[in-house]
Amino acid sequence: MTTTAPDLAERFRTDGFVFPVNALTHAEAEQALAECQTYLRAVSAVGGALARYAAFPKIHLVASWADRIVHHPAILDAVASLLGPDLLVWSTNLFIRPAYSGSSLAWHQDAVYLGLDGYQQHAARVWVALTDTTIANGTMRYARGSHLHGALPHRFGGSGLEDIMRGEEIAVDIDEAAAVDVLLDAGQCSVHHLAMAHASGPNQTDTGRFNFAIDYITPRVSPTAGEDSALLVRGTDTGAFLPERRPESDFDQAALNDFYSAVTRRQKRINQTVQNRNAGKGPDTPRDPS
Hints:
four-stranded antiparallel β-sheet; Jelly Rolls; alpha+beta; 24% strand; seven-stranded mixed β-sheet; 8 helices
């Protein structure tokens, strides 16, 4: 059954997530997927910073398909029902699980890597399905109510390469029997709290899984340290983030300049956040792999 606006806030407060939320139409999802694949080919051909940051954290600054999704009225209405009328996009991310990929991601929380004050009440991640998401293709799993415990300690699950590639995992037991699989049709989305514990499995199908994630915040969120930027998408902004601009077209020069500045600024700050959190241990780059 599709979740409607009146019950979003209560379910988000108690469970830490809501889905499915109807967002893009099937035709819009098909178009976005095609444009996303074209975008990935283009940035791969260009190389450099565009290719390095193709999947995160500022896709919306250079790609019109991403800009269109972050401004989608159905998504903004759903997020506004949770966070209020003033909304900014802090980050956009692509999460792709290729066909027959054996990769999986351990139970983790996004919040521990992001360096945001006020995220507990004033931020949410929207996970938009550009393809259907199923158990077979490695969709996300949520640990219901885990956001209520705040930021949990994390550790690597082992010393082998496979353990490290799976990322840091929560250093407390997760009740697998109570985990919820995020099953979405293309065009639908889920919304989760940034302290929601989640994981994902391997893709055992012959087609790739494509998801586009958007981190929405309100002006009541601020960076823990250093400068950062965000794009106002609804209401007014009186907050601590430098303003971003929408692209006039794909990869236009002004957009590229803004993109390079924004990702450099963000990467520097997030690297420092992760280093501070790990006290000199673990990776020095953000792990944000839903």
